[in-house]
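User: Hi! I'm working on a homework problem where we have to compare a predicted structure to a textbook description. Could you give me the structure for the chain below?
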Amino acid sequence: MADNTGNGGRPANHARPPRRPLADQDRFGLLLVLLICTYVVSAFTKGRWTDGAQVVLYGAAAILSLRTSDVPKRYAGIIAAGLLAGTAIMVALALISRTGLGIANIWVALVMLFVVCVIVYSVLSKDEVTIQSIYGAFSAYMILGLMFSSIFSAIDHLGGGHFFAHGEPANTETFQYFSFTTLTTLGYGDFTAAGPPGRAIAVLEALTGQVFLATLVARLVAAFRSPRQRAQ
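Assistant: Happy to help. Predicted C-alpha cells:
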C-alpha cells in the first residue's frame, strides 16, 4: 500500500511544527547589546533626563523581548501598545517629581520582571541550546540586576531617610553598583542598605542570583553545542 502520509511513514498530524525564521531567533544578542547600552548610559550620566531615557530604553527592551518570544502576534501587539502607553506616562512622572520617579521605578521593575519571564520561557521552550540561548540567559541575568536596582531606587524615592548606611550617595549609579554586587554576591561592603526593606530585598536578590546561575545558565552552558558538533 502506498504511503500517503507524506512524512516518511509518520502520520501527518505528528509532524513537528515549523521552526521560526532565523531572523526571529537572533534578537537575544541585540537585546543584550541594548541592555549593556542602557547600563552604560545610566552609569556615566546623571539627571532627570537620564532617568527618563532609562525608562524609554527599558520599554524598548521589553518590546524587543516580545518580538523574540513565542507570544502570538495578536497578544504581543496588545502588550506592546500597553508598554508604549505606560512608558510615556512613566517618563512624564519621572520628570515631574521625586515621588513620580519612585512610581516610575516600580513600573520599570514590573516591566523587567515581565521581560525576564518572557526570556526564560522562550529559552527553555527551544529544542536546542544555541548561542542565542546563551545570550538570552545572560540578558535575563542582567535584567535581574537592573530590576532590583529599580526596586532599591523606588524604596529610596518613596520612603523617608537615607537608603544607604553612613549617608552614602543614593543615585542611579550607586543603586546599580549595589544591585550587581549583591546579585553576584561579591559584597564589597562599601555600600550597604540602612533600613529593613532594602536589606530584605538585597537578601532576596542574592538568593535569586545564585539560583539563576546555578540552574538556568549552568544548564544552558553545559548543553550548548556548536553547529559543527550538532551536525556530527
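For your comparison, note the following. The chain has one domain: 24-33+46-227. The chain is about 70% helix and 0% strand. Good luck with the assignment!
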